[in-house]
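So, can you check?
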Amino acid sequence: MDRRCFLKQGSLEVASMSLLQGYANLNNMDGTANQLTIVNATSNFEREKLRYPFGFKGGYLTELWQVATQLKGPNEHTGVGLATQSVLYGDANVFASTSEAGGNALMYVLANKALDMLAGHSFENPVAALDHMLPEVHEEGKRLTGRPDLNINFVYNALVSVDNALWMLYAKEQGASGFRKILPSAYRKALSHRNDKVAVMYQVSYGMALSSIRRAAEEGYLVFKIKTGQPGTEEEMLQKDKERLSEIHEVLKNIKTGRTSTGKVYYTMDANGR
C-alpha cells in the first residue's frame, strides 16, 4: 500500500470517531468496571525507503517501518493505531548488534507479542491495559534481543501503535467524540493547556545538504532541530558537531523572520542520549 494511502486511511479512522460518535457522559471512566474488551488484535507494516540516510544518535537509518494495528471490541467497534518504528532511537545497542531490517523485525515481533497478551482480555481503560502488560513485554523484549539491559524505550516504541489503537477503541466504546472526553480525571488538568501558536520543527540530520537547510528557511521554517552526537569517540563527536553547527549557522545566521521575538530563526540541538 502507498504510504500516503496508508496514513490517509488511518486519518479517516480517526475522523470517523469524531463524526459518527455523539458526546457521552464519561464520568464513569474512572470507576472500576472493565470498559475495554479486546476480542481480536492484528497488525501489519510496510517498509518506507528514505530518500537519503538519516543520521542521528550516532548512527544512520535508510528505511522506516510504518506499522498499523487494529483492535476489535465486542460491539463491532474497531480501533486503528499507527506508528513509525525506530530501533536506533529505542536502543542503539540493539541497532548496532544486527542489520537494520533485523532490528525492525525484532521490534515488530515484540509488538505482536503484546497483541497476543491483549486478545481475549478486558481492562478498565488503556492505561490499565499498558500497566498490565508492560513488565511482561519488557521481559519478552530482553529474550528476543538477547539483551538483559534492553532499554525500556525500545519497548515503548514497539507499543506505540498498540497504545494508539487501545485509545481509539476505548473512545468508540465510550461514545467519545474528542481527545478531552477520554482523559482520565487524574490527567485532565495537566493536559488541558493549549498553546495559541505552534511551529513545525525542521529536522536536520547529520548528512543533510546545507542547500536543503537554506531552502527550508526560505520556505518559512523558523525552528531547526539539529541532530548532534555524531559517530566516533567523544572527542571526534564534539569536533564533528562543532564543525557541523558552524556550517549550519553560516547558512542561517542572516535569515530574518517576523514570527519570533528576536526576528531570527531558532535552533534546537538534539543529541538523543549521546
